[in-house]
Amino acid sequence: MSTLYYVLLFLVSVVVTLGGCALFTNAIEWLGKRLGISEGAVGSIFAAIGTTLPETSIPIIAIFFGESAEESEVGLGAILGAPFMLSTLVLPILALLVVLYARAGKRTAQFHLNYRDVLTDLTFFMIGYLVALGCAFERSRLIHLIAAGGLICLYIYYMKLKFAPSEESEGGELEPLIFDKTAATPSHPMIAFQALLGLVGLILGAHLFVMAAESMAGLFSMSPLILTLLIAPLATELPEMSNSFLWLYRKKDKLAVANVTGAMVFQGTLPVSLGLIGTEWVIAPSALTTMILAVQAVGLCLLQILLGGHWRPWLLGAGSLFYIGYTVYLYAN
Q1: DSSP letters of 202-220?
Q2: Quick check: helix, strand or coil at residue 147?
Q3: CA dihedral for 182, 188, 191, 197, sign (positive or negative)
Q4: What confidence category does residue 131 fall into, taking pLDDT thresholds of 50, 70 and 90?
Q5: DSSP state of 89
Q6: CATH superfamily of this structure's domain 3-169+186-332
Q7: How far apart are alpha carbons 42 and 254 in whole angstroms?
């Protein structure tokens, strides 16, 4: 088939995935409000899970329903590309936007966060991802399965901490339910219907993306792993980025950052456990590099808080050098 067909298939997959994600995220946030869940938990759990479903759908379909080694590569690329993108691109962009919004007179040039919560998120991510990184050097299937079970338990414990009663609250507003914009408080059936339709869109979009990625990789003689390490996360991280950008503009820093760091915890545990269960977890050098760079980037974020007590936007933005350097390396090779 023609190059144009594959490009269109890829674009359609991105549109369908992002559309499904918009529906699901909007519905899941309303569900959190109807259930009386704190907005902090909505940001780090409900919104994070909703916006990470595209990345999670791709490896599930590629690994468990694919029939070729290339599809497994697509799955691993989607699993490992997301934490790399979040830590080396999305967080630095948030720092840049804080500065730009401040210069435009919309807000101050500092993050206003509960850094204890940020430390919790980043620590859970580091623990989970270091386990995943260690498993890349261990070929024992039993150890991989034990590690997968441990990562699942780690995320469950993380959710337990997030759902614990908190003294802090954010008086944020939710956008109207997309399927019922006139209702001040949409009904549970309407919320559930929108969430289900969004989930269908996510699964369909993920399936189309796997097809497009495999086809385009063969057409351009490009490794599917490389394609999904850079292109898939960039497309599927758009929901996290757009939500967080808007929250920063509205001075809701806690929600903006929790959406990203909560997504990192999710991506560093549950999708990784799927990879450990469904594949041999043989990581190519290029993918292994993204894991190491993500750990280093998050380590610097943690170090800033531990030493200085807060994030400096200019220093947080410097984490983008990891992403830029890796992209230049891939292009050169």
Answers
A1: HHHHHHHHHHHHHHHHHHT
A2: helix
A3: negative
A4: very high
A5: I
A6: NCX, central ion-binding region (1.20.1420.30)
A7: 11
- pLDDT of 282 strictly over 90: no
Q: Angle at Cα 78 formed by Cα 75 and Cα 84, nearest 5°?
A: 145
Locate 99 and state its tokens. Answer: 């500065």
Task: Spell out the domain ranges in the chain.
Answer: 3-169+186-332
Q: In which residue are the tokens 């959190």 written?
A: 32
- The Cα–Cα gap between 120 and 162 comes to 10
Both structure tokens of 50: 């909703």
Dihedrals phi, psi of 319, to nearest 5 degrees: -65, -20
Rounded CA-CA distance 76/196 in Å is 26
Q: Tell me what the mean pLDDT of segment 55-62 comes to.
A: 73
**pLDDT at position 31:** 81
CB 274, CB 63: distance < 8 Å: yes
What is the H or E stretch that residue 309 is in? Answer: none
d(CA 245, CA 299): 23
CA distances from 271 to 21, 126, 180, 283, 325 (A): 17, 15, 32, 15, 26
**Residues shown for the chain:** 333
Alpha carbon distance 295, 311 (integer Å): 17
Alpha-carbon span 172 to 5, nearest angstrom: 43
Do 76 and 275 touch, CB atoms closer than 8 A? Answer: yes
Average predicted confidence (pLDDT) for the chain: 82
* Type of residue numbered 292: I
Q: Distance (Å, rounded) from C-alpha 300 to C-alpha 308? A: 12
Check if the beta carbon of residue 61 is closer than 8 Å to that of residue 78. Answer: no
**pTM of the predicted protein model:** 0.79
